[in-house]
Amino acid sequence: MATRLLGAKLNLLSVREVLNARDKELSDGGGLLLRPSGERAVWVLRYTSPAGKRREMGLGACVRHNAKAAGESLALARDLAASQRALLASEPPLDPLVVIRVRDTHQLLKVERSRSIAGERLTDADCASV
């Protein structure tokens, strides 16, 4: 899988294309997609998990108020996608969505453990803040 991604073309979108995207999914290469819907748009990373399952991971909203904001949003999405691709290319390969789920569960357990030591109960608000 890693060799296929290394040969993939990256950074195909320009800031102008990000600004003007309307109702048509655009690829920046390497699985990074801009999915616009009217005035709004989101960044999505499409990849194949180490188990062979096709997955999509949301990377956040695309800010398109002006050219500077669109360029910063594009750069941030490329950085996030690169870090997720690095997880997929690591040895052993890791599924980015599983890594996030494990990290969030670990943080929740740390909060729960500290609360139980202090004699307090974990509330729904505590769970939502993690």
Structure description:
- This protein is globular.
- It has 130 residues and is an alpha+beta fold.
- It folds into 2 domains: 2-94, 2-Layer Sandwich (Double Stranded RNA Binding Domain); 95-130.
- The chain has a 4-stranded antiparallel sheet with strand order 1-2-3-4, covered by helices on one side.
- 48% of the residues lie in helices and 21% in strands.
Task: List key phrases describing it.
single chain; 130 residues; alpha+beta; Double Stranded RNA Binding Domain; four-stranded antiparallel β-sheet
Could you write a compact summary of the structure shown?
With 130 residues, the protein is of the alpha+beta class. It has helices spanning 2-6, 15-20, 67-89, 96-118, 124-129; strands at residues 26-29, 32-37, 40-48, 54-61. It is 48% helix and 21% strand.
CATH fold assignment of the largest domain: Double Stranded RNA Binding Domain
H/E series, N to C?
HHEEEEHHH
Largest β-sheet summary: 4 strands, antiparallel
How many domains? The number is 2
Stretches with pLDDT under 50, minimum 5 residues: none
How would you state the average pLDDT, rounded? 85
Number of helices: 5
What top-tier CATH class of the largest domain fits best?
A: Alpha Beta
* First-last Cα distance: 32 Å
Helix content: 40-55%
What is the β-strand count?
4
CATH superfamily of the largest domain: Integrase, DNA-binding domain
Structural category: alpha+beta
Strand content: 15-25%
Tell me the CATH architecture of the largest domain.
Answer: 2-Layer Sandwich
Rg value:
18 Å
What gross morphology would you assign?
globular
Biggest sheet: strands side by side, in what order?
1-2-3-4
